[in-house]
Amino acid sequence: MIPPTYFAISWVIADATTKTRRDRAIVSLAGVIPDIDGLGYPIENWITINWDAPLLWYSEYHHILCHNVGFAAFVAAGVFWLSKWSRKTALLACLTFHLHLFCDVIGSRGADGYQWPVPYLLPISNAWQ
């Protein structure tokens, strides 16, 4: 799936459950933020085209850095602070974050058809993917 799809799904949840524009924006962004590690793709692509030695920022680290419970806790803490200590907004942000991970498990593949694993328990353990 692509980030606008995650944003739309998160926005529907946020619109149905929050009252302020700020909370809707925060909850919606929490559903997209796991793909921030995908920003390495254009850099990797440009370096692969222009240099001999590729820099594998996207290929090696997509779904590793931000698709895990450690980053989910970091996002939840940030949302809790940004929403002025609203537990409801923080819980909704966790919901949209984990909905993103669930959608990745059931439907995300690389360009070559490879199903990317989601190392959910990182940084605690690499056992469950």
Number of domains: 1
Strand content: under 5%
Radius of gyration equals: 16 Å
Order of helices and strands: HHHHHH
Measured as a percent range, the helix fraction is 55-70%
- Tally of helical segments: 6
Counted beta strands: 0
Largest sheet: none
Structural category: mainly alpha
Mean pLDDT: 89
N- to C-terminal distance: 19 Å
3D shape: elongated
> What are the low-pLDDT stretches, counting only 5+ consecutive residues below 50?
none
Q: What descriptive keywords fit this protein?
A:
elongated, mainly alpha, 129 residues, 6 helices
Task: Please give a structural write-up.
With 129 residues, the chain is mostly helical. It has one domain (3-107). 59% of the residues lie in helices and 0% in strands. The chain contains six helices and no strands. It has helices at residues 3-17, 21-30, 40-50, 57-61, 69-82, 87-107. Helix 1 runs antiparallel to helix 2 and helix 1 (3-17) packs antiparallel against helix 6 (87-107). The longest helix is centred in the last third of the chain and has 21 residues, at 87-107. The protein starts with a helix and ends in a 22-residue tail after the last helix. The mean pLDDT is 89.
